[in-house]
Write a structure and sequence with these properties.
By secondary structure, this protein is α+β, with helices and mostly antiparallel strands. It has helices at residues 40-69, 72-84, 95-104, and strands at residues 2-6, 10-16, 23-27, 32-37. It has a four-stranded antiparallel sheet, with helices on one face. Helix 1 crosses helix 3.
C-alpha cells in the first residue's frame, strides 16, 4: 500500500481492489474511492498528481512574492544568471509557462 498526503483530499491510499480493476486510489479523509486503475504505476501517478499541482500553485505564489520583494538590480542579476545557465532564457521565473500549465490542469 502506497500513500500520498494531499491537503484538499487528505491522505490518499493506493491499494489492491479486484482482479478486474486491480488498483484503487482511496481517500482516508472522505472514506471514498477516488479512482480505479489497471496498473499500480497509473494509480500512484494519479494519486500524486493533485499533490504536485498544489505544490506548483504554492511555488507560483512564493516566486511572485519573492520577485515583488527584490530590488531591480537583484532581479536583473538573477535573470542573467538563469539565462547563462540555460534554465530560463526567455522569462526569469517562467511565469507564462507555469500559468499555462496551471490553467490546463484546472488550477487557475
Amino acid at each position: 500500500m502506497n500513500t500520498v498526503n494531499m491537503p484538499s483530499q487528505g491522505r490518499l491510499v493506493v491499494d489492491s481492489n479486484t482482479p478486474e480493476l486491480p488498483f484503487r486510489v482511496y481517500s482516508e479523509t472522505t472514506q471514498g474511492n477516488i479512482g480505479f486503475f489497471f496498473s499500480a504505476a497509473d494509480a500512484q501517478r494519479f494519486a500524486a498528481s493533485g499533490a504536485l499541482l498544489e505544490e506548483l500553485v504554492l511555488a507560483d505564489k512564493i516566486l511572485k512574492a519573492m520577485l515583488n520583494a527584490m530590488p531591480k538590480a537583484k532581479k536583473f542579476a538573477l535573470a542573467e544568471k538563469l539565462a547563462a545557465e540555460g534554465i530560463s532564457p526567455d522569462g526569469m521565473i517562467r511565469s507564462h509557462e507555469r500559468s499555462l500549465a496551471l490553467r490546463r490542469a484546472g488550477a487557475q
